[in-house]
Structure formats: structure tokens, C-alpha cells
Amino acid sequence: MTPFVTNRRVAFSETDMAGIVHFANFYRWMEETEHEFFRSRGLRIMEQQTDGTYIGWPRVSATCHYEAPAHYEDEIEARLLVERVGYKSLTFLIEFWLGAKRLAYGRMKTACCICRANGTLQSIEIPANYRSQVEV
Known about the structure:
It is a single chain. By secondary structure, the chain is of the alpha+beta class. The chain has one domain (4-134): Hotdog Thioesterase (Thiol Ester Dehydrase, Chain A, Roll). The chain is 18% helix and 42% strand. It contains 2 helices and 9 strands; from the N terminus they run βαββββββββα. A 5-stranded antiparallel β-sheet has the order 1-5-6-7-4, with helices on one face. A 4-stranded antiparallel β-sheet has the order 2-3-8-9, with no helix packed on it.
């Protein structure tokens, strides 16, 4: 599969006084990249069902490894690759690049769940319309 690619410019609010991106922002960027990936395929992260429940994708795990700093005003390229499509979960590899230099990479595993109004979650098989759009 060809990676999904999106770009973002580092905002001042994402940096410390030295103009270096705070590490926690990479996790937020991973999630934003995942959401853009879903939208690019006509899918939603939260999709209401006819019974009032939602299909959602809560995190099972997330890791990020840092190789070089990102700075204020850098134009960062995010690349998302679907590494694994399981019965009930997806695993993504997401890399952040500045030109030819990889700044960081991380993995997110997310489970397909039914989200009820009372806040309970139940993992479910990935629906066919999602599976067909994200298949490796």
C-alpha cells in the first residue's frame, strides 16, 4: 500500500521557548493524521448508527520514537501506512519527515468499537465498508 501523506506547518503554540516542538504534539499529530486518512477514504472516526450508538476507534496503544527535533515554522510531512488490518483492530505506522530527514515515527493500534450513550464500549469486527477502504 502506498502511504497516505499529509503536511502541516509547526505552530508557535506547539513549541517551547527555544522554538522546538514539545514531544507530546507528535501524539496529537499522529491522531490528526489518522483522522485525515479516514476522511480521505470517505470514512469517519465516529459514525452514528441507526440505533443511536456510534462506531468509534479508541486507542489500544501508541508509541513514538524521536530522531530529530522539529522547529517553529517547519513544514512537516506525515506519512501513514496501514501495517495490519486485524479482525477488530488496525495498526498504523506514522512517520514525520522534514525534507529527507525523518524526525520521528510511531505506531498506533486502534480497535473498532460500538460506543453506547452510557459510555460503554464493545469491540466489534471491522465493518466491511471500513475494511475495504483500509485493507493493506
